[in-house]
């Protein structure tokens, strides 16, 4: 395990150096190409409920245009929110913090988000309890109720269901076998496991695995002879949309 973690750490360090040297112009051009190809995927077009990572100002494909497009097509958009939790709880598997997917209410709501210390647009902590959780309910525990200022449009009904059809995931590096190297905290792998293992009182699975799409700058794809070091709990993606115009899928 130490060898695997060391290999991942070294690869992250190598890629972060490469990405730090990319120009804003290159990232902008690649973001436009990758976004256009993502929006053309049948799985994206069919998705009614999707989650989108909110991008850093540099070093990765921008997702701003994806959020705009999703709202223009009437999709429900959820974004990551990290919060502290009880590491002794069984559901959190000893983790001190976990990720939830909480709803953006509108395009205006998205555009009013303030950047965190990494420059990533982030949800206001005061709004969390009234935001829909894609696993059901509201807030980080999925049990809170919307506050008195919530509108009828924000109240989720049973007919709307829960879960996600598609997740746009970030990453530091990828390979041609669709393996993904994350930022090292395991938030997405843990979240996908939670989502796919969610069960009802009868013990039956209640959610299907969403389609996983990664957006990558050309520089984030390893050469054909190199592979991402992975463990058994690391989820590969179903499609990799690259800023150089290529789309790699699990069926291609």
UniProtKB/TrEMBL annotation:
Keyword Nucleotide-binding in annotation: yes
Coiled coil: none
Protein name per its UniProtKB record: 5-formyltetrahydrofolate cyclo-ligase
Binding site for substrate: 54, 60
Reaction(s) catalysed (UniProt annotation): (6S)-5-formyl-5,6,7,8-tetrahydrofolate + ATP = (6R)-5,10-methenyltetrahydrofolate + ADP + phosphate
InterPro entries, alphabetized: FTHF_cligase, FTHF_cligase-like_sf, NagB/RpiA_transferase-like
Pfam families: 5-FTHF_cyc-lig
GO (cellular component) term, any one: mitochondrion
């Amino acid at each position: 395990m130490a060898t695997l973690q060391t290999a991942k750490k070294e690869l992250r360090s190598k890629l972060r150096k490469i990405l730090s040297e990319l120009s804003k112009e290159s990232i902008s051009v690649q973001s436009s190409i990758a976004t256009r190809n993502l929006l053309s995927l049948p799985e994206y077009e069919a998705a009614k409920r999707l989650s989108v990572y909110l991008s850093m100002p540099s070093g990765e494909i921008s997702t701003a245009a994806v959020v705009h497009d999703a709202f223009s097509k009437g999709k429900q958009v959820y974004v990551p929110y990290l919060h502290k939790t009880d590491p002794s709880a069984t559901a959190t598997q000893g983790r001190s913090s976990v990720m939830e997917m909480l709803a953006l209410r509108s395009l205006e709501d998205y555009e009013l988000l303030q950047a965190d210390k990494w420059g990533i647009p982030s949800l206001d902590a005061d709004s969390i309890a009234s935001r829909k959780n894609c696993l059901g309910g509201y807030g980080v525990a999925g049990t809170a109720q919307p506050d008195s200022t919530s509108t009828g449009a924000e109240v989720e009904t049973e007919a709307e269901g829960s879960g996600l059809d598609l997740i746009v995931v970030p990453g530091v590096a990828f390979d041609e076998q669709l393996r993904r190297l994350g930022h090292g905290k395991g938030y997405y792998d843990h979240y996908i496991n939670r989502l796919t293992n969610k069960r009802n009182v009868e013990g039956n699975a209640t959610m299907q695995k969403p389609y996983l799409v990664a957006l990558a700058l050309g520089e984030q794809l390893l050469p054909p002879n190199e592979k991402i070091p992975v463990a058994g709990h690391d989820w590969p993606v179903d499609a990799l949309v690259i800023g150089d115009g290529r789309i790699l899928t699990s069926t291609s």
